[in-house]
Design a protein that fits this description.
The complex is a heterodimer of chains A (243) and B (483). Chain A is built from six helices and nine strands; from the N terminus they run H-E-H-E-H-E-H-E-H-E-E-E-E-E-H. Chain A is α/β, with parallel strands linked by helices and 243 residues long. A nine-stranded mixed sheet of chain A has the order 3-2-4-5-1-6-7-8-9, with helices on both faces. In chain A, strand 7 and strand 8 form a beta hairpin. In chain A, helix 4 packs parallel to helix 5. Chain A starts with a helix and ends with a helix. About 4% of the residues of chain A have low confidence. Chain B has 483 residues and is of the alpha+beta class. A seven-stranded antiparallel sheet of chain B has the order 14-20-19-18-17-16-15, with no helix packed on it. Chain B has a four-stranded antiparallel sheet with strand order 8-11-9-10. Chain B has a three-stranded mixed sheet with strand order 2-1-3. The longest helix of chain B is centred in the middle third of the chain and has 21 residues. Chain B starts with 12 loop residues before the first strand and ends with a strand. The model of chain B has no long low-confidence stretch (mean pLDDT 83). Classes of the chains: A alpha/beta (243), B alpha+beta (483). At the A-B interface, helix 2, helix 3, strand 3, helix 4 and strand 6 of A face helix 13, strand 12, strand 14, strand 17 and strand 18 of B.
Chain lengths: 243, 483
C-alpha cells in the first residue's frame, strides 16, 4: 500500500464535504485569490465562488474597510475581463480609487435603486446572469427567504455575490456561505517611518459553511493580502498601559 | 358637406371664395355640374344658370384638411397613401388589390364607399402616378390600365392630362397639339428646345421613364407586424400569446435580413377606439425573441384591455445591422460586450428606467468631484487613464462635511478633529496635497488635503479650504474615508 495515512484522511475529508452537500466549482476555483492564510478557513482551502458572501459593518469607517477588502477579492475575480454589477441605494464609492485596488472602475456598472425590494429583484436577476464576474449588493436587511433565493440563483450561474449590510437591525440566519466583519487597523510603515501606511484590516470570519471561523490581521499591498503578526499590531500606547 | 347635411344630396350647390371682389366657385356638386356650373366660374354667372343655387363659404385650408382625413381613412386599402393637392389622393396599391379579388373590384369598392359618404370621385389604376392621374381626370372613370399600356392610354387625352403648367398647355393648344398623340413621338431635342425640360419630365413620369416619389401620410414602417383578432382579447395570457406571435414573425424577418432592433413599440387597439401602448429599448441591436418577450413581459400589467383588444401591432422604428457572427462572438466574450450582461441591463433599464444605471469613466480633472464622469453608453471606450498616483479614499462624501480641528500652523497636519460629535486623535498623517480650483470652471478657494489615521486605525481624508489668515476665512472639512 502506497497510500499514506495523510492521503487517506484528505480523501475522507473530501468525501465528507461532498456528503454534506458542498460542491466545489472546478473551473472557477482556478481563479487564484490571494487571500493568504485566510484560505485555511474554507473547505478545500479555497474561498467558495459560486456563493453569496455577507459582510456586516456599523459605521462609515468600517464601510470603507469592508469596501477595500471586497475590492481586493473583486480584483482577482475581474481579472479575466469580468464585469461587476454594484447595486446600491446610494453610491458612496469613489470610482477612481478602485483602480488602486486593481479594478478597472469602468468595468463596474453601478445600479442605484431606492427600494429594498427593487435592489433584491435586481440582485437576483444579476446573479442569474452568467456573463458577470461578481455582483455586489448594498442592502441592510436580508431575510432568510431572500438570501436563499439569491443562493439558488448563484448555484445555476456560478457568479459570486457579495452582500454588504450596513447596520443590520437583526442578524438572523441567512443562506449565505460566509459572514464577515472587517474593521480598520492602524497601519505601519517600515522602520517606524512617519505617515500613513498600506491599508490594514482586522478580518473576522464569523460564520463559514463547512469551514472554521476565525480572525486574521491582514495588510493589502500591491494587490495581495498579506498576513501580519498580531504582536506588532497592538498600538504602542496600549502596550505601555498594560506593561 | 353632404355628410353633414344629407338633404343637400339632391339639390345643386357650390362652394365659393372671394377673389378681387367677385365670388369665385371653388367646387360644385354633381347636380350643379350637370347644369353646366364649373369650377372657376363667377358665382353671379352660375346663379344665372341655376336658380336658386345654394352656396357656402369655402375655407382655403378645407381641401387639404379633407384630403388628409380621407387619406388616413384610405389606409384600409393600402399602407401607402399620399395627398396630391389640390384635389387628389395617390395610392400605391402594389400587392393590395388581390385582397379585394382583383383591381376592378378594388376600384369599385373604393368608389362605392366614397360615394356613400357623398364624395363624387374619379379613380383609375395605372403603372405610373402620372398615367393614373391623367386617366382619372380625363379618361374613363374606374379604368384599369394594363401594365405597359400607359402610352397607348394617354394618346387621346389632352395635354393638360400630363400635369403641365397652364402656359405650356396654352402654347401646345396654339400649336394645334390638342392631344398627347400629336406630340408624343416628336424628337425629344425639339420638345426640349420649345418647352424646356418641364414637359419632358412630366411625359417621362407619365410613361414611367422617370421615377416619381410620393410622400405617404404615414411613413411606412418597414418592420411592422399586425395581428387582428376575431374576438376581442381581454386577458393577460391573450396579450402574451399575441406578443409572442408578433415577436416571432418580426424577429424571423429581422434575422433573415441580418438586422436587430433597438426600440420596439407594441400597440393594442381597443374596441372602444382607444390605444394602449408599451415601448422597450435595448442597448444593442437584437433579434432575440426570448429576450424581447421578457422586456415586454414586465410591462404587460400596464396595459388595460377594458372591453377588449381587437388589433395588435408591433413596430420596430429603430433597426440596426446585426450579423450573426458578431452575435456568436458576444456570447462568449466576457466583459461589457457579453450578450447576457446587455440583456440584463436592458431588463433593469426597462423596469426601473435608464437613469438608475451608471458607469463611470476617468475625466482629466484633479478636483476630486470632477475626476470621473458618467459614461453615455455601456460600451463607451475612453482615451485617458485612471490616475492612481495620489492617495484617494474609497468612500467619498458627496458633500464635504465641516469638522472642528486643532492644527498647528502653518502647514502641519491636524492633531485631532471632531466629526459627528466624536473626537478623533490623529496619530499618523500624510500631506498636504494642494488641489487648486479650476478657475475656468468654478470660483472658490483651493484645498489642502491630508490623509490622517486616528488611534483606532481608521483613515480619513481631511482638507482645509483656503489659507490661514486673520479673518479666518479658512475652514476644515472631512471628505472621505480610506479603506
Amino acid at each position: 500500500m502506497t497510500e499514506t495515512k495523510a492521503d487517506i484522511i484528505a480523501r475522507l475529508q473530501k468525501d465528507i464535504l461532498s456528503l454534506q452537500g458542498f460542491k466545489s466549482v472546478a473551473e472557477k476555483s482556478a481563479i487564484d485569490i490571494a487571500l493568504g492564510q485566510i484560505k485555511s478557513a474554507f473547505p478545500n482551502s479555497s474561498i467558495p465562488l459560486a456563493a453569496i458572501h455577507e459582510f456586516i459593518y456599523s459605521n462609515q469607517e468600517a464601510t470603507a474597510a469592508t469596501g477595500g477588502f471586497v475590492s481586493g477579492i473583486l480584483a482577482s475575480l475581474m481579472k479575466a475581463n469580468g464585469v461587476t454589477l454594484w447595486i446600491t441605494a446610494n453610491r458612496t464609492i469613489f470610482p477612481p480609487t478602485l483602480k488602486s485596488f486593481g479594478i478597472a472602475p469602468d468595468k463596474i456598472i453601478f445600479i442605484e435603486l431606492k427600494k429594498e425590494k427593487q435592489i433584491l429583484w435586481a440582485m437576483e436577476e444579476a446573479l442569474k446572469c452568467n456573463g458577470l464576474a461578481a455582483v455586489v449588493g448594498e442592502i441592510p436587511e436580508l431575510s432568510f427567504t431572500a438570501s436563499r433565493r439569491l443562493q439558488l440563483a448563484v448555484e445555476q450561474s456560478k457568479v459570486t455575490g457579495f452582500i454588504l449590510r450596513d447596520n443590520p437591525r437583526s442578524l438572523s440566519t441567512t443562506a449565505c456561505v460566509t459572514r464577515w466583519k472587517i474593521s480598520s487597523l492602524s497601519s505601519s510603515l517600515e522602520n517606524d517611518m512617519p505617515g500613513v501606511g498600506f491599508p490594514r484590516w482586522n478580518v473576522e470570519l464569523l460564520k463559514v459553511r463547512n469551514g472554521k471561523p476565525g480572525s486574521w490581521q491582514v495588510e493589502f499591498i500591491a494587490g495581495r493580502f498579506r498576513h501580519i503578526n498580531k504582536v506588532a499590531l497592538i498600538p504602542q500606547e496600549l502596550q505601555k498601559k498594560t506593561g | 358637406m353632404i355628410r353633414r347635411k344629407p338633404g343637400l344630396k339632391q339639390i345643386p350647390f357650390v362652394m365659393v371664395l372671394p377673389d378681387h371682389g367677385r365670388m369665385i366657385i371653388t367646387a360644385a356638386n354633381k347636380t350643379a355640374e350637370i347644369e353646366g356650373v364649373e369650377k372657376g366660374m363667377v358665382l353671379a354667372d352660375a346663379r344665372a344658370i341655376i336658380s336658386p343655387l345654394q352656396y357656402f363659404d369655402d375655407e382655403p385650408e378645407r381641401n387639404e384638411k379633407l384630403l388628409n382625413g380621407l387619406a388616413e381613412w384610405m389606409i384600409r386599402y393600402t399602407p401607402i397613401v399620399a395627398v396630391d393637392l389640390p384635389d387628389g389622393l395617390i395610392l400605391d396599391v402594389s400587392g393590395c388589390a388581390h385582397l379585394w379579388s382583383g383591381e376592378q373590384q378594388y376600384l369599385a369598392n373604393i368608389k362605392k364607399r366614397l360615394n356613400d359618404f357623398g364624395y363624387d370621385i374619379r379613380i383609375a389604376i395605372a403603372d405610373t402616378v402620372g398615367a393614373a392621374w391623367a386617366i382619372a381626370r380625363f379618361g374613363y372613370n374606374l379604368s384599369v390600365i394594363e401594365p405597359g399600356n400607359q402610352s397607348t392610354a394617354l394618346l387621346l387625352l389632352p395635354p393638360a392630362s400630363l400635369r403641365l403648367e397652364a402656359d405650356f398647355v396654352e402654347r401646345l393648344e396654339k400649336l394645334g397639339l390638342r392631344q398627347v398623340q400629336h406630340f408624343i413621338n416628336f424628337p425629344r431635342a425639339s420638345l426640349r428646345r420649345r418647352f424646356g425640360t418641364g414637359l419632358l419630365k412630366r411625359l417621362d413620369q407619365a410613361l414611367g421613364y422617370e421615377e416619381e416619389i410620393i410622400q405617404p401620410v404615414h411613413p411606412v414602417e418597414l418592420y411592422d407586424e399586425r395581428l387582428p383578432c376575431l374576438e376581442p382579447i381581454v386577458t393577460a395570457t391573450g396579450i402574451e400569446i399575441a406578443l409572442q406571435r408578433l415577436l416571432e414573425t418580426l424577429c424571423g424577418k429581422l434575422r433573415q435580413e441580418e438586422k436587430g432592433l433597438r426600440t420596439a413599440l407594441f400597440k393594442c387597439y381597443r374596441i372602444d377606439g382607444k390605444m394602449e401602448m408599451m415601448e422597450i429599448g435595448t442597448n444593442r441591436p437584437t433579434a432575440n425573441t426570448k429576450h424581447l418577450f421578457r422586456l415586454f413581459e414586465d410591462k404587460i400589467p400596464t396595459i388595460e384591455p377594458a372591453l377588449g383588444i381587437e388589433l395588435f401591432i408591433l413596430i420596430a422604428p429603430i433597426v440596426e445591422e446585426l450579423s450573426p457572427t458578431q452575435e456568436k462572438l458576444w456570447e462568449k466574450t466576457g466583459g461589457l460586450d457579453n450578450s447576457n450582461l446587455i440583456e440584463l441591463i436592458d431588463r433593469i433599464e426597462g423596469k426601473f428606467g435608464a437613469n438608475h444605471i451608471h458607469r463611470y469613466l476617468p475625466d482629466d480633472h484633479y478636483w476630486p468631484e470632477r475626476s470621473f464622469k458618467e459614461a453615455n453608453t455601456i460600451q463607451e471606450i475612453f482615451q485617458n487613464t485612471w490616475k492612481i498616483d495620489r492617495p484617494r479614499p474609497l468612500q467619498l462624501l458627496s458633500k464635504p462635511q465641516i469638522i472642528e480641528v486643532t492644527a498647528p500652523v502653518p502647514d502641519y497636519p491636524p492633531m485631532n478633529f471632531r466629526y459627528k460629535g466624536k473626537f478623533h486623535k490623529i496619530l499618523k498623517a500624510d500631506g498636504p496635497e494642494r488641489i487648486e480650483q479650476e478657475w475656468w470652471l468654478q470660483e472658490g478657494q483651493h484645498r489642502d488635503y491630508y490623509c490622517v489615521e486616528d488611534e483606532e486605525g481608521n483613515r480619513y481624508w481631511l482638507f482645509r479650504s483656503g489659507h490661514y489668515d486673520r479673518i479666518k476665512s479658512y475652514q476644515w472639512f472631512i471628505h472621505g474615508f480610506f479603506a
